[in-house]
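Take a specimen:
=====
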Amino acid sequence: MLLQPNDSWRWFLGEERRLMLDLGEEMIFATPYPQKQLVCTDGLAQAFSVEDTGLYYTFLDKLGMMTAPAQRVQAALNGIAVARFYKPLMPQSWFFEPQADYHQPQLGELIGLDTPAGRLTMMVVEASASASVCISLSAGVELGETKVLPAFGAIKVMNDRLISLEAEAREMEIRRVG
């Protein structure tokens, strides 16, 4: 079931100091993001904005490959929370392998990041010319001895580390047909 945003949706900080979204009709979405990672105050009570709604549909569209609608909604709402409320991040590109082809991602694009432990699937929630903020769509992954990136964890990465999953899928299709 895909949720449709409406003017009753409200962002707020829950009892455990986590960012929450009141969806109305006694439904609440809890993000995994504690207040210390966010740029919001104790009394946060903000409407789900027109910009949030635009991001929601952009992310849902890009997440079309995920089969379960609930997973798509969860990823989209967490992506909006990071894009709107997360504290600015410094790039942490050293966890990921540089790529031969430079990729300039689009907002909401699904990208891959190669680590020594394997490939992570990420969604771009903020793109710029040199670095992008992404959230992990992979289960918790150990990036190093002191860093674990949980599901929906946010990280900023230089664009020279990004792998376009869409371009890679097209290339695989051409090889298969070809």
Q: What stands out?
A: The chain has a mean pLDDT of 88. Residues 10-85 form one domain. The first helix runs from residue 50 to 62. The chain has two domains: 10-85, 93-177.
